[in-house]
Amino acid sequence: MSYQQLYARWRDDPEAFWTQAARAIDWDRPASRAYFDQGPAGEWFADGMVNACWNAIDRHVAAGHGDRLAVIHDSPMTDSVTRLTYGELQDRVARLAGVMAARGIAKGDRVIIYMPMIPEALEAMLACARIGAIHSVVFGGFAAHELAVRIDDARPRAILAASCGLEPGRTVAYKPLMDRAIDEAAHKPDFTIVLQRPECAAQMTAGRDLDWTEAVAAATPADCVPVEGNHPAYILYTSGTTGQPKGVVRHTGGHLVALAWSVPNIYGIGPGDVFWVASDVGWVVGHSYIVYGPLIAGATTVIFEGKPVGTPDAGTFWRVIADHKVKSFFTAPTAIRAVKREDPEGSLVARHHLSSLQALFLAGERADPDTVAWAEDRVKVPVIDHWWQTETGWPIAANPFGVEMMAVKKGSPTVPMPGYDVQVLDEAGQPVAPGTLGAIAIKLPLPPGTLPTLWQAEDRFRRAYLDHFPGFYETGDAGYIDEDGYVWIMARTDDVINVAGHRLSTGAMEEVLSSHPAVAECAVIGVADPLKGQAPLGLLCLKKGVETDPAQITAEVVRMVRDRIGPVAAFKTACVVDRLPKTRSGKILRATMAKIADGEAVKAPATIDDPAILDEVRAALAGVGYPMGSV
Ligand code: COA
Ligand code: AMP
Known about the structure:
The protein is α/β, with parallel strands linked by helices. It has a domain at about 495-625: 2-Layer Sandwich (GMP Synthetase, Chain A, domain 3). Helix content is about 30%, strand content about 25%. It has 18 helices and 32 strands. The strands form 10 sheets. Strands 6-5-18-17-19-20-21 form a 7-stranded mixed beta sheet, with helices on both faces. Strands 8-7-9-12-13 form a 5-stranded parallel beta sheet, with helices on both faces. The protein has a 4-stranded antiparallel beta sheet with strand order 24-25-26-27. Strand 17, helix 10 and strand 18 (about 300-305) form a beta-alpha-beta unit. It starts with a helix and ends in an 8-residue tail after the last helix. Bound molecules: coenzyme A (COA) and adenosine monophosphate. It comes from Paracoccus aestuarii. Belongs to the ATP-dependent AMP-binding enzyme family. It holds the Pfam family AMP-binding. This is Propionyl-CoA synthetase.
């Protein structure tokens, strides 16, 4: 079947399309229909009964595949490789679920997971799914305060953590961060389960903290608990425009169906194949394609604890692909740029046998044509850019590699996937002509697997995504669709920036900067960065009468962002200005400042209050090395 036929098959009869796709899943009770016109944006398979852990693990064991490899943990950080079969994974997950169940965790309870890239992180997620608990994984690069914000929003009964994560050159002690977060949060979990890693022993709090290994060894395995198709499988917090992250909800039934469909049809992965996604379980990519997707498909997933470069060198990716016979590999463009910078000729690629590899997938940020071309030339497999978001849970636009490899246009993530009616709208909400820039929106309903709402924030969900263009979901991305139907993603329409494939809120950083006692007003902008795509940069106006050395204040705010949001924010540069450029109505001209920092020609907007301020900003940015040249 061609892509065009596939897309037409969905468009002609979405109900039949998704009903058929749902047959790839084991249901305790099939849903009476696929689409339910209920909730703020519709729901899928709402009255079916199903269990995600059963579909990811137990059914493969029941079908006689218990000896098949489910997980390969490859850790250049600890110089080790660990393998788990589906049978072993079932035992470990059922016991961990048993530990939680014995302490009263039941269907609908929330559990926060704060762990590095080790098999236990995947086990924790699946153990929650097994008993119908709703997990919320918090990325390890976030600081205690960010964890506390999520604890107060999700109100978990338990937190599962490891004693530490391993970053090049340093051990990140997670347990003290978790302790600080629990102290800071108003909500307190009943208990925690802490995995003591050999690299770092955590101090345990008697009566609250359970030792993971001991508890699992002593546990009675728990069975899978069927849940409704619209039971939340998880909450995953993502950056919005403010410091309060958005709790994206994923319903179980649609999640399973969308992943069962996308793993073979987009990534070309089937039972027994090895799928490696070099992201982190703290991001949506990790949820969908490190944990659930490959296991639902009966494939082997690689959990990688390392970096593209420096662990030990820029050949790590190619070594892992060769060692484990990876068939499809997925990473962020920034990781390929990091490899390219260290090994421009690709000499380390040539040292490894990559014959198992069929395609390299890129997402998380725009894949610039130079990076795509470099990877194609060196790795000699199709390089596939695809576009999606935490909210959607699976690709909106992709080259459907498992169906038909379409012609690549470098810089475009190719075409909409079945389920997504992607349209480009003008400010008035009218579709624009092909090739014209506009806001990218998706006609409702969204397909299975996408967010039905935000966690206990339905109004915010409507305001953030549905109200601006009635009848559409607003993606927050701007771009265009060309004459051939290819989608081009050019920029965000909000204050979200993308740093090394990590989605960050400039609004959240501004909240931290504003809390410095010397700061009267501030703005954080995303400036072009040759490695990370974008980097945050802060501009500060100081309060009258402040006499502290501006260099000291900028150093302090850099430290504050690292402490409050986390190292992942990569906030390293700030400068002091007398005034911020604003429109006459008082809106700070962030995009104009970002253009100045990127060395682009800037025309003072007609609405600007005082054009002379732009020269002051230009001088201040020059003082911290901007513009530094085009990417
Ligand atoms: N736990 C604790 N700290 C973490 C962390 C984690 N899980 N992940 C990252 N950090 C820290 C890093 O150690 C770094 O700290 P530093 O400021 O002390 O150096 C900081 O957060 C920024 O990390 P990162 O953005 O990863 O930058 P880097 O300079 O360490 O590495 C790349 C650069 C390009 C190699 C790296 O960004 C990368 O591999 N990116 C891929 C991104 C990706 O997979 N994104 C997921 C979307 S698909
Ligand atoms: P996240 O929710 O963290 O996955 O980030 C989603 C955002 O990252 C999208 O809304 C885009 O702004 C950006 N993004 C992800 N993939 C791509 C891509 N292939 N091309 C351009 N931008 C992308």
